[in-house]
Amino acid sequence: MNPLYRRAIWRERGSFSLLIAVLGVALLVGIGLVVDGGRYITAAQLADNAAGEAGRAAGQHITAQAVTGEAPQADTTRAVQAAQSYLAAAGVDGTVTVAGDEITITTTVRRTPVLLTVAGVSSITATGSAKVHLTRG
Predict the structure, then answer these.
(1) How many angstroms from the chain centroid is the CA of residue 108?
(2) 95 in helix, strand or coil?
(3) What is the SS3 assignment for 91?
(4) Whether residue 5 has pLDDT greater than 90
(5) Do 95 and 17 contact (CB within 8 A), yes or no?
């Protein structure tokens, strides 16, 4: 074998390994973004859905005056209790606020990332909210 050719091969040794290492890391980061991005999307859907359903549960509790034809008002204690019960059953943290004929629910869902913990991401947090406005129909 030609000595110049041997020296050229020797200088190129390891360059392919470096390329594979860089591409491997990039591939792992890409997979991490897909997997943990999916976990964020499902957490956001859960937060929004739980807020909406808790709002529906709370909206069922109105004061007795609404039955007699007056404007509907939420029974604050029972509405908050119903919404909190739903959120607890769904395993979602949240707050419920009642102001007259309006009920506001804000939820938070936290997930632990699967692959992005290597990159220093320790938690994925998604929030959801819903407003219920009581009207006569």
Answers:
(1) 7
(2) strand
(3) coil
(4) no
(5) no
CA dist 30 and 75 (Å) reads 50
Give the tens place of pLDDT for each residue, 20-63. Answer: 888 988 898 889 889 999 999 999 999 999 999 999 999 998 88
> Could you identify the residue written with the tokens 């957490």?
43
Scan for tokens 């007795």, then name that residue. 64
Most confident listed range (63-72, 101-110, 115-124): 101-110
Residue 93, helix vs strand vs coil: strand
Is the CB of residue 125 less than 8 Å from the CB of residue 109? Answer: yes
Only one residue has tokens 């769904």, namely 90
Show contacts of 79-87: CB within 8 Å, 24+ apart.
79/103, 82/54, 82/57, 82/58, 83/54, 83/55, 83/57, 83/58, 84/54, 85/57, 86/50, 86/53, 86/54, 86/57, 87/50, 87/54
- Please check the confidence at residue 137 and state whether its pLDDT lies above 90: no
